[in-house]
Amino acid sequence: MPRFRALYLDDGKVASFQSQAPKKAPYVLTRSHYHDGPEVQASSPYQAWQQLRHEGGRNGSVAKPFEVGDALETGGGLLLCNHWGFDAAQWRTTPSEAPECGR
Known about the structure:
By secondary structure, the chain is α+β, with helices and mostly antiparallel strands. 19% of the residues lie in helices and 34% in strands.
């Protein structure tokens, strides 16, 4: 079963992200705008979301629920949690890329 690592969008960036109009995937995320959360073992990103949202992640120790704007990282890539589900994402690789998410 795959392992997913939760990545939480910084509190100061959440409102900005949640008020943005939807963009075309893949979203470009800035790594410095995210902090690491727990890892969960799940059969799909949606099962991981449910564990993080309702069960508190690993050992029930997550202080913050998983929300829109947060991301999941797995061996298969990076996924951004949107209002309607998960979209493909990638990390910003150069400073010249236009900001898309997590400004």
